Amino acid sequence: MINPLPPLCFTWLTDQPHRTLLIGVAKPLLQPENAHLAAYVIMLLVPVFAGTVGYVVYSFTHRPVRYANTAHGLMLELCRLHHISEPQQVLLQTIAEIAEVPHPAILCIIPDRFDAAVEQTIVKLSLAQRDQKMIRKLRQQLFD
User: Fold this and answer.
1) Which pTM does this prediction carry?
2) What ranges do the domains of the chain cover?
3) What separation in angstroms does the CA of 10 have from each of 17, 18, 24, 28, 100?
4) Alpha-carbon distance 77 to 82, whole Å?
5) Distance, CA of 118 to CA of 134 (rounded, Å)
6) What does 29-74 look like in DSSP terms, one character per residue?
7) Percentage of the chain modeled with pLDDT above 90
8) φ, ψ of residue 11 in degrees (nearest 5)
9) Is the pLDDT assigned to residue 31 strictly greater than 80?
10) For residue 14, what pLDDT band results from cuts at 50, 70 and 90?
């Protein structure tokens, strides 16, 4: 019986003709004639791998400064933990500005300071019923 595709067979897997692997290439990759191709692939992959590792290390060591150790970062973290929405954050910052609190995060931590700042805000501004309701909801989210 004649093998219909003899040049398309990998015979390097086994010496037996009936166990050859048909791939669709003329020569196996690891034959001595193609050894230079494997060397080129390795020479290509080594710099790519080294570059990738270098980029990962650089990215890890030169991360952008986060807000974690700042007053603003504390405020954002407290708002995230207490599920405070953006309009409520704006209201909290407005209350802090009107009450001349150094930073709004103080209002999230100390309930008495929050109440005093809210009273000052109500006295200085005539807040609508909707705003007062939002302030009550904000206090409940922060301290209950």
Assistant:
1) 0.52
2) 6-61, 71-143
3) 10, 11, 9, 6, 81
4) 9
5) 11
6) TTSGGGHHHHHHHHHHHHHHHHHHHHHHHHHHHTPPPPSTTSHHHH
7) 21
8) -100, 0
9) no
10) very low
